[in-house]
Amino acid sequence: MKKILLVLVWLSYLAAGVVWAQDPNGPDTVYLESQKYKITPGGGDLEVQIWLKTDNALDKDKVIGFQMPLVWSSTNSQAQARFDPTRLENQASASGLFRNSAIESWGIFILLEDSINHKVELAAVCTTSSGLLSGSHLLATLTFTLLDTTTICLDTTQNMGRSLLFVTSQGFGYVPGFYSGCFSAEFGALNTPPYFVAVPDTVRMSPCGFYQLKVEALDDDSDSLSYQFEITPAPASPPTFVDSGNGAAVMSWAPALDDTGTFTITWTVTDWSESVDALTTVIVKDLPSVDLLPADINCDGKVTLGDIITIANHLFKGMSLPDCVRGQ
Fold first, then answer.
1. Which domain range does residue 14 map to?
2. How confident is the model over 61-72, as a mean pLDDT?
3. pLDDT tens digit string along 87-141?
4. How many domains does the chain have?
5. Residues 113 and 31 in one domain
6. In this structure, are 16 and 53 located in the same domain?
7. What is the DSSP letter of 40?
8. Beta-ladder partners of 204
9. Residues 119 and 17 in one domain
10. For position 91, what pLDDT does the model report?
11. Any residues with CB less than 8 A from the CB of 61 and at least 6 apart, and which?
12. pTM attached to this predicted model
């Protein structure tokens, strides 16, 4: 804690009492870099690197310290973006932000965060002889944790009177140019939705019969699929439904005597990102009374085994009766 207070005092002293000078050899720039990050549906991280490009060529112009107040924003509140320094190595201290950077050996690092206002202030002081001379140098890596796709934007700002400041080994302070940036995190790949390859269209059923309807779907991305179904209006005797887990699902139903009418089954297949629906119409119709049926049920002019097969198909498979019988 004492070290942090000392550095804050040092930074305040720099901001108030440093000898301000022109940037040696022309303008230096601070700029940001990040890959186009891909995250999974469960979320992920987005890293933004902070770089300094300097043309300071003389030992007296070495960069030996800086303070850098930053402000960030997220375009998607559902992503619940959060600046998270603990995602990097050396999680126990602010120096983890500077891991594998050009200044990781400087010795004194500080991180101040205002999570409510999305402000982050970085500072570092060189306690060795390894200041920065001409070239492009990685200063720090910021990590943001995300629960959804979003775009993170970063810019410099002021924090309690402190603003962007770099200091040379001669004690001169200057303000480099700062290039703000916005960086996107997207899902790992464009998703291809699943599609049905087998769906019953219109099915006729009779009360007290037993029926099974099967649907199948494919996914070109080889994603795992899950199924749901809904039948409307709600029948007196509800169907059972089994998602087989291998690209197919089966609905089993034995309509009750009270289940006459027309029903719509909505099948839904879902991969991790998108859902697709398909419809099946089910018509449950009472049979005519047996004493009203003629013996020649298949209307071929004869009473044979074919008549028994026709009535059995109608009773147990939902097949329609010939028009000559239905018209009686």
1. 2-187
2. 95
3. 544 334 555 788 889 998 898 888 898 999 999 999 999 988 789 999 999 999 9
4. 3
5. yes
6. yes
7. B
8. 283
9. yes
10. 39
11. 24, 25, 133, 168, 169, 170
12. 0.54
